[in-house]
Specification:
Number of helices: 7
Largest sheet: 6 strands, antiparallel
CATH architecture of the largest domain: 3-Layer(aba) Sandwich
CATH class of the largest domain: Alpha Beta
Structural class: alpha/beta
CATH topology of the largest domain: Rossmann fold
Mean pLDDT: 94
CATH superfamily of the largest domain: Nucleotide-binding domain of ferredoxin-NADP reductase (FNR) module
Number of domains: 2
Bound molecules: flavin-adenine dinucleotide
Radius of gyration: 18 Å
Distance between the termini: 21 Å
């Protein structure tokens, strides 16, 4: 695992380059929205943390993950403050079910809160690469402009694929999303499939609003970045 991009002082991207052919083959078949589990020895303890695949090299011989430093987080404090630039890890195969339905023509409305944007970066990249003409709208929320770390990459995707639309939301300028804002986005489209990923407060807010509106459960998908705790 190798540090590749410093987005700001608390969000970095890393490239993961598997060393065995077996892993390389598994990696090539991952689905956008899936995550891998990283196992690493920190202060004499083995710890495991899941991270969503946020990008990949053209030949898929290296995958990218993007990691936010958690205050007092065991793994991320070590990673940001003490880890060498390149180090070895154990790795699971890609897994998870937070997958964009690429085949149906219903619009996908994605609510991303902060680092919860990572699966949506993978959706957008896959749509651009595969020319699927699937319409998605990503509402990318963050505290401030500096925290919209994927803005430039998304703008590039949207330039290449007219079916991808981005709506940026900075809470330092507009405050947190309200029920009215959320329903405004939802009602812009005909019964969109809704995808939500962000911190628990962000997810709960959107879920509560949709529940109040009796939005169909089967049209909502949620990815929770639950914390494993310091173990
Ligand atoms: C499916 C999935 C995908 C994910 N994808 C990403 C991703 O793409 N990018 C990303 O950055 N993260 C992602 N995560 C989160 C990631 O796996 C880690 O949980 C995160 O990086 C924190 O790890 P850590 O070891 O630094 O923090 P931990 O040591 O696990 O602590 C996490 C937080 O909990 C607090 N905490 C720990 N113990 C306690 C306690 N006893 N009481 C109160 N608070 C406590 C810490 O202060 C810290 O803020 C994902 C999680 C899941 C489940």
């Amino acid at each position: 695992m190798e540090q590749s991009i410093c987005h700001n002082d608390h969000v970095y991207s890393y490239l993961i380059k598997p060393t065995s052919i077996e892993f390389l083959n598994q990696f090539k078949n991952f689905l956008p929205g899936q995550y891998i589990i990283i196992q690493v020895k920190v202060f004499d303890h083995w710890i495991e943390r899941p991270y969503t695949i946020s990008g990949w090299e053209e030949d898929k011989k290296a995958l990218r993950v993007t990691i936010k430093k958690e205050p007092k987080g065991l793994f991320t404090s070590w990673l940001f403050e003490q880890a060498p630039k390149i180090f070895s890890i154990n790795l699971s195969s890609p897994q998870g079910h937070f997958l964009l339905d690429m085949k149906n023509s219903t619009i996908g409305l994605c609510f991303a809160g902060g680092i919860g944007v990572t699966p949506f970066v993978a959706y957008a990249k896959a749509l651009v690469e595969n020319h699927l003409n699937k319409k998605i709208v990503i509402v990318y929320c963050a505290n401030n402009r500096e925290d919209l770390v994927f803005r430039r990459e998304f703008d590039e995707f949207a330039r290449e694929d007219p079916f991808i639309k981005l709506l940026y939301w900075q809470s330092d300028l507009k405050g947190f999303l309200t029920e009215k804002d959320i329903m405004l986005f939802v009602n812009m489209f005909a019964e969109p499939d809704i995808y939500i990923c962000g911190h628990p407060g962000f997810q709960n807010l959107i879920c509560q609003v949709l529940q109040n509106q009796h939005y169909r459960h089967d049209k909502i998908q949620i990815e929770q970045f639950t914390y494993a705790g310091s173990a």
